[in-house]
User: Fold this.
Amino acid sequence: MEYRRMGKTGLQLSVLSYGSWVTFSKQVDDSASDKLMGRAYDNGINFFDNAEAYEGGKSEELMGRVLSRKNWDRSTYCVSSKVFFGLHGKDNKPNQHGLSRKHIIEGCNDALKRLQVEYLDLFFCHRPDRETPMEEIVWSMNMLLQQGKIFYWGTSEWSAAEIMEAHAVAARLNLIGPAMEQPQYNLFERQKMEHDYYTIFRNLGMGTTTWSPLASGLLSGKYNNGIPEGSRLSLENYSWLKDRAMAGDKIERVKKLDKVAKELNTTVATLSIAWCIRNPNVTTAILGATKEEQLLENLKAVAVYHLLTEDKMKEIEAIMGTKPAVP
Assistant:
């Protein structure tokens, strides 16, 4: 496993990590989760990602049960949560969602209970809250830092302007700004990582914990001949994900990637993950495998990304044609 410093912080995260979105409590149970997290940890993964909104807190509860059974030294792994959406979706009452000081602090305390840990290594604002003053958001996160309940705070799917505003507020108030962002990043989704955050990487040194390196499984090739039963895109209440993933000629481009993968003696899935972590601005790419064999195959990306020469990258780009214009 390779480890990268998270931006300008001293924290080192495994370049591949393991997350629970959709997977935990939806596709895998306690037994499978225990095996997957154990296999990930044994192969050097030291970051496990979660959020209050994942299955209404059930994902955190499941991960908490697994962590409580493992005899891992707490200093050897990092765990995260995110706050914004709340637990109840459309049934949230006032103050049960968003980034008010009340919800941020209550959300953190509740996540600690569900995950059965004394502190969160990383705590994210899961989306921007344009109805809450940035000063309140930054102050709330700093209160949690001072209390030792979180070690680093960050953002997820914020715009570059919003991230810069948070840093400006933190500097003005002599507080700590966000250390990391969690954007989607894969061969189909590149705008934020390669364009919007360009000056932030250059000037602030922000870390990233990128999600969906396989575009919800599309880049694994599993959907080349339809949607298999039990796969992520077949799940109830995830039709929006299917519509977005299957749009246009994406399947045809994935099929063409198979040729490049075979030239490197690997799979399209591993190639796609390797492509993500070849970007030096990616601190870690979050995996979401539901089977041990998938996870073990995904882990090979650490070796494969070193094989991606400039010529190979150009070949991939010619197939995908998704590169945004760099500022």
Remarks:
- Residues 264 and 307 are 8 Å apart (CA to CA).
- The chain has 13 helices and ten strands.
- The two ends are 33 Å apart (CA to CA).
